[in-house]
Amino acid sequence: MRALRVLLFVVVILGGLFVAADRVAVNLAEDKAADKIRSSQGLDKAPNVAIKGFPFLTQVAGRSLQEVDADLGGIQARAQGRTLRIDQLSAQFHEVTLNSDYTSIESAAWATGNARINYADLTKAAGADVKVTYAGEKNGRSQVKISPNVPLLSQLDVTGSISIVHGDTVRLRADGLPGMCKVLPGCEAKVRAQTDHDWKLEQLPGNLKLEKVVTMPDGISISASGKNVKLPG
């Protein structure tokens, strides 16, 4: 019985040491991956990276990680000479494969992501004192209210739709303009110059493709996904 107790004690100690070593290894790997993502994506600071699954060391031995999550925080996207700030950007990579020398991530079988943009940043990106606010959904389409700044037309508000095009671009379009604007020379062109915009997001991790946008009271939420994607780092 004493020998059995000693054996159990040794097993517990070794198990504890293995868990500790495993957690140290995963923390180092997360820091390294975060730094590589920062440099490859041109970020101001390293993102938060979490490698899921236990034990980590056995996953590394098999060159396959169960899941890697990356929270990039806020980033800036350039389009039409203006900057569109993405308030939150996160991605989850599943069935991740390491390269042959175990030093970096090669690809992920599939991935999902989400981006959040608030209306204040949409307003700033639209420029020319245009204001963009929440307008709910209509017939399954996410809508916003756009208030352009056009001389001689006070308190002009139009309903606009937000959609995804080409898998990487957020599109804002006025659904229609008031009849009075259509009869004033040059009015429609001036209004649409302020209401119609395309913002191409080129900093999506792993070349994820944008899929759907939903308007919410505090901003818009954009979902993304991809298969056989490459994960920076």
From TrEMBL:
It comes from Streptomyces auratus AGR0001. It comes from the Bacteria. InterPro entries: DUF2993. This is DUF2993 domain-containing protein. Pfam families: LmeA.
